[in-house]
UniProtKB/TrEMBL annotation:
Entries under Gene3D superfamilies matching the protein: Glucose Permease (Domain IIA)
Localization: Cytoplasm
Protein name stated in the entry: PTS glucose transporter subunit IIA
UniProt keyword terms in alphabetical order: Kinase, Phosphotransferase system, Sugar transport, Transferase, Transport
NCBIfam families recorded: PTBA (TIGR00830)
The UniProt record lists the keyword Repeat: no
Keyword DNA-binding: no
Domain of life: Bacteria
Transmembrane segments: none
All copies of domain PTS EIIA type-1, residue ranges: 44-148
Length: 175
């Protein structure tokens, strides 16, 4: 009798996990809402010349950064302007909110998750105060990168159009 209830509850939780599984495990969702642009248009050569990785950028309009895929938050920069993740397939990601925002020393950013936490796509990671960034004369261009590009067979970014955090696919890849 107890196994009946145990199996009943276990089967329900497994069904819930299936519902939360991303439709495409070979894609990154927009980590923040805004306008997609190619890396080549990011006014910083580290990103525009793909020295830090390959992907795309978003001119942010939203205020919440979410996980673009399932994985582990492997680094939250002390200044909270960037987050690194490692996906289950080994790909390493960097979400760098704005340009030269390290100079803000955390001002305008609220960390919502701890380093080392496993997250699902869409989990809120950071709150961003765009007004603080803009008031300092800094760019809102937010690169979304796969940093270990050699681990991917192909990387295909979306480079135009409006994107919605946690919904719009912004990078497709093959591993």
């Amino acid at each position: 009798m107890f196994n009946f209830f145990k199996n009943l509850f276990n089967s329900n939780s497994k069904k819930e996990e299936v519902v939360n599984t991303p439709v495409n495990p070979n894609a990154l969702l927009a980590p923040i809402s805004g306008k997609a642009i190619p890396l080549s248009e990011v006014p910083d050569p580290v990103f525009s010349e793909k020295l830090a990785g390959d992907g795309m950028a978003i001119l942010i309009e939203g205020d919440t950064v979410v996980a673009p895929a399932d994985g582990e938050v492997t680094l939250v920069f002390k200044t909270k302007h960037a987050i690194a993740m490692t996906l289950d397939n080994g790909l390493e990601l960097l979400i760098h909110v704005g340009l030269d925002t390290v100079s803000l020393e955390g001002e305008g950013f609220e960390q919502l998750i701890e380093q080392g936490t496993r997250v699902k796509a869409g989990t809120p990671l950071l709150k961003v105060n765009k007004d603080v960034i803009l008031s300092k004369g800094l760019s809102l261009a937010t690169p979304v990168l796969i940093t270990n590009v050699d681990a991917a067979k192909s990387i295909t970014p979306v480079e135009s159009g409006e994107v919605v955090a946690g919904e719009t696919v912004v990078v497709k890849f093959e591993v």
